[in-house]
Amino acid sequence: MKHIKNLCAAAIMMLCMTVTANAQVGEKDVTYPQLFFGLQGGGQTTLTDYNNWKLVTPTASFSFGSFFTPVIGARLHFNGMWNQGGCISSTEDFKYDYKYVSSNLDLLVNLVTLLGKKNYYPLNVYLIGGLGLNCAWDNNDAYTRKDMQSGMLSVAYEKNSLSHNARFGVQLDWNVSKHVSINMEVAANNLRDSYNSKQSKSEDWQMTAQFGIAYKFAAKRAKKAKEEEVYETRTDTIWYDDAVFTPHVEDGTATWTVFYKIRESDFEAEEQLAAIGAFLKDHRECKVDIKSYADVQTGNPKINMEYSRQRCEKAVKALIAAGVPASVITSAYYGDTVQPFAENDKNRVSIIVATGLKDVEKKELVKKFKVKTTEVHRR
Fold first, then answer.
1. Contacts of 342 (CB under 8 A, 6+ apart)
2. How many CB atoms lie within 10 A of CB 107?
3. Which residues contact 39 (CB under 8 A, 6 or more apart)?
4. Strand 284-292 relative to strand 329-333, pairing
5. Per-residue pLDDT tens for 263-303?
6. CA distance to 9, 42, 121, per residue, from 6 (Å)
7. Any bridge partners for residue 379, and if so which?
8. Could you give the CA distance from residue 106 to residue 91 in angstroms, rounded to a whole number?
9. Strand partners, 311
10. How far apart are CA 100 and CA 72, in angstroms?
């Protein structure tokens, strides 16, 4: 209680010290739009069948936004800290802790300027309404008693809970200087049922009461144009690089490998087939060459020659089935007489090489100039 009295005394002293500065601020000194950011701190409780005064915990907020006109403003508001719930059964009086954070987009309506005749008053009352999301977590105290407490905590969540957050509130704001104001805000936050781990067949309500301070960035007034400005015309020659594109033909080559397991020859290569089809679309006068092999360390030369033949023929059939014209395909098989790779297991392979011509435009830079006329202020 002593600390609370000291805080109140300090707040009163601060208000008294800023009254003089506030008296010097008038309607002509405030312009819109007016950006601001604020900090708040206070207490909160979530309404329940427990003694709500025993569930009051600290809370803090951060916000930033803008007053677009003397009447209308908006802010992005973040609030959170600790929360408590409680329940009483025939055997236990139990309180449990959990954490939360809520984010809201709030609309601010200044009732004083709305109903008054001026655009500026030292003391303002804002009606607040907004929507956002609330996330609660660290609910282990309630979750461990989920099956106890006569089922009162049957909807307690283990990890986290995400809920809507609809806010209705009012803020009393006092401009103590041109850029600084202090405020007191009371808000009711509507959340989904079971936010506090209890099911009441109606949505939960969280009540917050906070004191805060805001810093406002007033828009600067436009400077008046100087009278009798004198200008003269100036002509400049500006050189620049202009891009010129000329037709050009590029040789294209692409290689794909299809590996096989021991004693297998089925051509399973959907990715390679798609790549070959894309190459043929981008090039003209294409040729596709297929060469198939077998590894020397498995089987014998006769068997390996047969495997490489089967691999070659099946590769040709697969390419034709995929839409490659048979007239552009050439093929050959070598058994184990040729080993294209140093690693033995890689020589059970079909190597496909595609060539073709691609029409492109070659970019060249050419020097050009233009004449620019500007009006220059004569001092």
1. none
2. 16
3. 60, 61, 62, 212, 213, 214
4. parallel
5. 999 998 999 999 999 999 999 999 999 999 999 998 899 99
6. 5, 16, 29
7. none
8. 43
9. none
10. 29
Q: Is the pTM of the predicted complex or chain greater than 0.70?
A: no
Nearest-angstrom CA–CA distance, 343 and 179: 75
User: Which is nearest to 352 in space by CA: 262, 263, 279, 297?
Assistant: 279
Paired with 248 in beta bridges are 360
On whether the CB atoms of residues 217 and 36 are closer than 8 A, the answer is yes
Task: Give the bridge partners for 126, in sequence order.
Answer: 110, 171
d(CA 87, CA 51): 9
Distance CA 87, CA 7 (A): 33
Helices (H), 230-366: 270-282, 301-321
* Residues 16, 3 contacting (CB under 8 angstroms): no
Place 49 in a pLDDT band, splitting at 50, 70 and 90.
confident
Residue type, 81: M
Walk across the sheet containing 231-259 and list its strands: 231-259, 349-377, 284-292, 329-333
The structure tokens listed for 203 are: 């949505």
Which tokens is 222 given? 């436009």
- Answer for the pair 356, 252: CB distance below 8 angstroms, yes or no: yes
| Neighbour count for residue 129 (Cβ, 10 Å) | 14
- The one-letter amino acid code at 178 reads K
Spatial neighbors of 131 by CB under 8 A, at least 6 apart, are: 104, 105, 164, 165, 166, 167
Cα within 13 Å of Cα(185), Cβ side: 35
Structure tokens at 43: 């207490």
Task: Give the model confidence (pLDDT) of 297-324 as tens digits.
Answer: 988 999 999 999 999 999 999 999 999 9
Nearest to 195 by CA among 57, 104, 103, 101: 101
Q: Identify the residue whose tokens are 């309630």.
A: 142
**Closest among 258, 214, 279, 255 to 77, alpha carbons compared:** 214
Token couple for 328: 């552009």
Distances (CA, A) of 242 to 237, 362, 364, 371: 15, 13, 8, 15
User: Cis peptide leading into 325, omega within 30 of 0?
Assistant: no
The end-to-end CA distance of the chain, in Å, is 69
Single-letter amino acid code for the residue at 8: C
